Every structure is written in C-alpha cells, then in structure tokens.
Amino acid sequence: MSEQRGKTTGASNRYSGYRRDVARREPGMKRRIIDALDGGTSSVPAVAEALGLPASEVMWWMMGMVRYGELTPTGKTDENGYRTYRRPGGGDS
C-alpha cells in the first residue's frame, strides 16, 4: 500500500492542473472585474464585453465573488433585463 502513496491518476493530474490555473488567475481576474465595475453597477454581459471574455466565464467569476461577499446584487436590472452587481458598501444603489 505504501507504494501507492503520492501517486495520482491522469484524470486527477488534469484536475489538479485546472485548479492550479484557476488559483493563479484569481487575483488578476477579480481585479479586472472590480475595475470594469468602476465604482458603479454593471451586469455580467456588460462586464464580459468590457473584459473581452465569454459571458459564461465572467458569470463563473462574478458568482464566486457574490458568494464570498466581494460583490452584491443591486436588486435592479439593466436595460436588457440582466441583474446588476456592485461592490458592497459602494457604487450606485
């Protein structure tokens, strides 16, 4: 059994590499999203357009930020019907 310790399968190596990539990108991506909000409110599609990234990727990052209290929903929608988000304690309400 001791010979198995420390060995991983190919699938777990790929997942481990993915997690490492996400962790590496996290601080920069959060900063880019916060900069795109520019002290105001914005929707996921608007932030995605400003960053030049797919909306699905920006949604993933922004929902993580909402989950951990780094963004809050405003309770309002933009002109296209998408929910808007802002930094807690700042921006338009």
Q: Classify the beta-strand content into a percent band.
A: 5-15%
Q: What is the first-to-last residue Cα distance? A: 59 Å
What overall form do the CA principal axes indicate?
elongated
Give the number of helices: 3
Rg calculated over all Cα atoms: 17 Å
The assigned structural class equals alpha+beta
Helix content: 40-55%
Indicate how many domains the architecture comprises: 1
Q: Let me know the largest β-sheet.
A: 3 strands, antiparallel
What name does CATH use for the topology? Answer: Arc Repressor Mutant, subunit A
Residue-averaged pLDDT: 84
Q: Give the low-confidence spans.
A: none
The topology string of helices and strands comes to: HEHHEE
Q: Order of strands side by side in the largest beta sheet?
A: 1-3-2
CATH top level? Mainly Alpha
Q: What is the count of β-strands?
A: 3
Oligomer: single chain
CATH superfamily heading? Winged helix-like DNA-binding domain superfamily/Winged helix DNA-binding domain
Instruction: State the CATH architecture.
Output: Orthogonal Bundle
